[in-house]
Design goal:
Largest sheet: 7 strands, mixed
Region (Disordered): 813-834
Structural class: alpha+beta
Helix content: 40-55%
Strand content: 5-15%
Shape: globular
């Protein structure tokens, strides 16, 4: 092995994401002696996909500095000790190892003595520990962000615990951090623990603890909180990866005299267009596939699963043989080969471009989880789309900016609701926000969650002031009382929280994701992951057989674009905007002026928003080319029922600022049946309206209610049914016949009833066995005879799954109930709770009263010594709302000029 082996903790953890790839393992820096990014450059395929925007890097650096702040370092250390059941430390000392192995060893020794003699805890940051198993080589050291040294339990104990930690500025999306990110973060902690455990210079009586700690932001101000988790499984995986790395180094020795392209080329890549984008060799491997002489390599490039490739390989090698492949996979391959997007057969069920919708695009800042550079909105009224209104903000991550975004949306929503009420005062139609992708919705909902928490905390502190108590944060520190949330802002916050709760009810659509809506109608060519970009999908939706597309050209054109259709920016555009906002590192920054270059900043943000607006309108135009499905009005009616409940919540201030994750336990329990009914209705409407989805379900062995069938004869009508569960005596309904979706036939009528949607005009009837030699052949006698020909492919459904009707005339789809738990009843008014509190405490009790009661309860608990800082171990703040103590340090990634991103760090390492 080369004596100058490189590669630290980050590369080892990244291996867990690409461990199945022999090329990734074989090009480990421990083997090649060069960083992965340098390797990609040497291969003439420099890495762009894993590049870190400057604003994102500054956010990470800002968070790490906050973790080292004296106040937060003490909090992280004491929280860690408390979670592990250790004694409360007498004090917390913070020291810096300056990324030196020798200094780290000395500070660990000092911390051990301090823990034993003074019962104090020490937070060491900037550690450097020899890479596990490579202490005697010149391998790059593992560099954990911090570690906590605490005394072991027992006053006379002579031992100390070393708890390894890492700082990750993971974004909270809708008040939580994605579990996959936390898993990856703890893998990095585990590598630090494993390396420290094998280090020969670890103090004799110091033991590496089986748990690790991950410091993550608890709010938009990047203030850290400590998450503690058992590392047994993580360390086992790290040991497996380390052994794997050593085997690869021994099996694939790299001689510096060899040509890198030759060495890398002989290593077999396991390519996946979804996960491989974070690898620095992504472009190299994809280019290899694109120029392969083997036509079946196209399926690898598309990301077709290995077990599905044999079913569609005939489509690309010319044999024409297709196995039992899903309709969506066949459509993807066909679109790739023909250059024209394939239609799924579904007509429109989304609510985009309807009167009462508001189109919204945002340019998100990489410097802050909830930062926004600008927002553009467009009202859609009965007369059509109105002009776009564009707003550029100068301070992306400030609380004032978040309020401004909500104020803008609240104004638009109020106008839309007023117009809908004028059109139908008794039963106004619902309103919707229309966004280009899911991340846009996530940012808006996360901002709403942030402001809702601040407002609820304000209500508690107002009660404290009324009662003569000091306004305190959860940790018992003096609070900064925020301004009241105005009604216009509250409308937007409440509506977006309604969308957050609606995630559990899949038929709800307060926010319409246009990309998802368009994907229901069109299957694009190329890797399916590319269709997660709206501009890519729009190109395929507009493609014509006379002018077909080349999927690689379209993909490259979209990748090379400086703009994106959704909330997040490209790295190039993010850097340009960040420089205009804060200045470059070489010229410094004028703290009194932000943006530093306001003209350029404004122009860049407006250009970005203009592209997003244009792409969203192109997508809406593409959607407009599809006729409406009869199911569209069903979906609209369901959303209308739900928004009637929401409007009562909003008008009475009753449970309108509660996110789904904070609903009362009895509320969540009562929602179980509502969610189940919603899910069943969604599946039923999906198979009724979407031929491709129905065909995919029909060939799924786990599906009982849907089956594929072939017309064996028309006189009499005989079907060959491809199901083990639908057979003799089963009553079935015809859902799709060839390219025809039966529910959208002009002869079909749908009646909206109180408890169901009654569908008349479908072919319904029982199956009867006709051939003992063929157990899957049945005669069928529907009440309405469909127009079929021998050989037609059908999709049929088990009638009993849909409806309990005895006759064969109507099919009833049960109408799911709205989430009306803990919500005002139609008879509630502003005086109901005051007049009869006992009868209305669970329906229309206003937030103002509920939070005042909770404030009193918190005061009683503090008086009993049950809350921080009196109690040990520290009590967890389950709300984690966006409030900070007066004078508390907060993170501002824009406060200092950007520093260059290290060449050996990729986004895969940072995330």
């Amino acid at each position: 092995m080369s004596g100058k082996a490189l590669g630290g903790g980050s590369s080892a953890v990244a291996a867990s994401a690409h461990a199945a790839c022999a090329r990734f393992r074989g090009t480990d820096p421990l083997i090649t002696g060069v960083t992965r990014r340098a390797l990609a450059t040497a291969l003439n395929f420099p890495d762009d996909s894993g590049r870190i925007p400057e604003a994102r890097w500054m956010r990470a650096m800002t968070f790490e500095r906050l973790v080292r702040d004296v106040r937060f370092a003490s909090e992280v250390a004491t929280t860690t000790a408390g979670r592990l059941g250790l004694d409360r430390p007498t004090e917390v000392v913070t020291v810096n190892a300056h990324l030196s192995v020798d200094t780290t060893a000395k500070l660990l020794g000092d911390a051990h003595v301090r823990a034993v003699s003074q019962r104090a805890a020490t937070l060491i940051h900037g550690l450097a520990v020899p890479f596990a198993g490579f202490e005697k080589t010149r391998a790059t050291d593992v560099r954990p962000d911090f570690a906590v040294v605490a005394p072991q339990v027992g006053e006379h104990s002579q031992g100390s615990w070393l708890v390894m930690g890492d700082a990750k500025d993971y974004e909270r999306v809708r008040s939580r951090i994605d579990d996959g990110r936390l898993l990856k973060g703890f893998l990095q902690v585990a590598l630090g623990a494993e390396s420290a455990d094998r280090w020969s210079h670890l103090p004799a009586d110091m033991t590496v603890h089986g748990h690790g700690v991950l410091a993550v932001p608890r709010n938009a101000f990047l203030q850290p909180e400590a998450l503690v988790e058992l590392l047994d499984d993580h360390r086992a995986e790290v040991r497996m990866r380390l052994a794997e790395r050593r085997r690869e180094a021994a099996r694939e020795p790299y001689d510096e005299r060899d040509e890198l392209p030759t060495f890398v080329g002989h290593l077999q890549a396991t390519f996946d267009p979804v996960s491989c984008t974070t690898c620095t060799l992504f472009s190299y491997c994809r280019n290899e596939l694109r120029h392969s002489d083997d036509p079946t390599e196209l399926l690898v490039e598309l990301g077709v699963a290995s077990d599905a490739r044999p079913h569609v390989v005939g489509m690309v090698d010319g044999s024409g043989v297709i196995g039992r492949a899903s309709a969506s996979l066949v459509a993807n391959v066909e679109a790739t080969l023909t250059g024209v997007g394939r239609r799924t057969g579904q007509l429109r069920t989304d609510q985009a471009d309807q009167p009462g919708t508001i189109n919204v695009v945002i340019a998100k800042s990489d410097a802050a989880a909830l930062g926004v550079h600008g927002v553009a909105t467009q009202q859609v009224t009965a007369s059509g789309r109105q002009p776009w209104e564009i707003t550029v903000v100068d301070d992306p991550q400030s609380a004032d900016t978040r309020r401004a975004v909500m104020r803008l949306l609240g104004k638009q929503l109020t106008q839309a609701m007023t117009a809908q009420r004028k059109a139908n005062r008794e039963a106004p139609s619902p309103v919707h926000l229309v966004v280009p992708d899911q991340p846009t919705a996530d940012v808006l909902v996360s901002i709403a969650d942030n402001l809702a928490g601040v407002e609820l905390s304000r209500l508690r502190w107002e009660r404290d002031k009324q009662m003569g108590r000091e306004a305190l944060t959860f940790n018992g520190e003096p609070a900064t009382i925020p301004p009241k949330l105005p009604e216009s802002d509250r409308t937007a916050v409440s509506f977006l929280l309604e969308e957050d709760r609606a995630r559990a009810l899949t038929l709800r659509s307060p926010i319409v994701d246009v990309r998802q809506a368009l994907a229901r109608h069109v299957v694009a060519g190329g890797p399916a992951v590319n269709s997660l970009r709206l501009d890519y999908l729009v190109e395929w939706a507009k493609a014509h057989p006379d002018d077909p597309l080349e999927h690689r050209e379209v993909a490259d054109l979209v990748e090379q674009s400086e703009h994106t259709p959704g909330a997040r920016l490209t790295g190039i555009r993010s850097d340009a905007i960040h420089t205009a906002l804060t200045g470059s590192g070489s010229h410094g920054q004028n703290p009194k002026q932000r943006p530093v270059d306001p003209v350029t900043y404004d122009a860049l943000v407006r250009e970005e928003l203009a592209y997003k607006c244009q792409t969203l309108e192109r997508a809406l135009d593409a959607l407009g080319s599809f006729p409406d499905s009869t199911v569209r009005e069903i979906r609209r009616a369901i959303e209308g029922d739900a928004q009637a409940v929401w409007r009562r919540r909003l008008s009475l201030h009753a449970s309108d600022l509660v996110r789904f994750g904070r609903t009362y336990r009895f509320w969540r329990n009562r929602l179980v049946e509502v969610i189940e009914r919603d899910g069943t209705c969604r599946e039923q409407l999906l198979v009724l309206a979407n031929r491709q989805a129905a065909e995919d379900l029909a060939i799924d062995a786990g599906t009982r209610q849907i089956a594929a069938a072939t017309v064996a004869s028309t006189t009499p009508l005989v079907l060959d049914v491809e199901s083990r569960r639908i057979g003799d005596g089963s009553r079935v309904v015809l859902l799709h016949a060839g390219d025809q979706t039966c529910v959208d036939d002009p002869q079909v009528e749908i009646k909206h009833q109180k408890g169901s949607f009654r569908i008349a005009g479908l072919s319904i009837g029982p199956l009867a066995a006709t051939d003992d030699q063929n157990p899957h052949r049945f005669s069928w006698a529907p009440s309405i005879a469909p127009s079929l020909e021998q050989g037609d492919r059908l999709v049929i459904g088990d009638f009993e799954w849909f409806s309990a009707n005895k006759g064969n005339t109507f099919l009833n789809v049960t109408r799911p109930g709205a989430d009306d738990q803990a919500a005002p009843k139609p008879t509630c008014d502003p005086h109901s709770y005051d007049d009869d509190p006992d009868a209305h405490q669970y329906c229309c009790k206003p937030h103002e009263i509920a939070e005042a009661d909770f404030s009193d309860e918190l005061a009683r608990r503090r008086a009993r010594g049950e809350l921080n800082p009196q109690v040990w171990p520290p009590v967890v703040d389950g709300d984690a709302f966006e409030v900070v103590a007066a004078g508390s340090a907060v993170g501002d990634p824009l406060a200092v000029p950007a520093t260059p991103v290290p060449d050996d760090v990729t986004m895969d390492d940072l995330e």
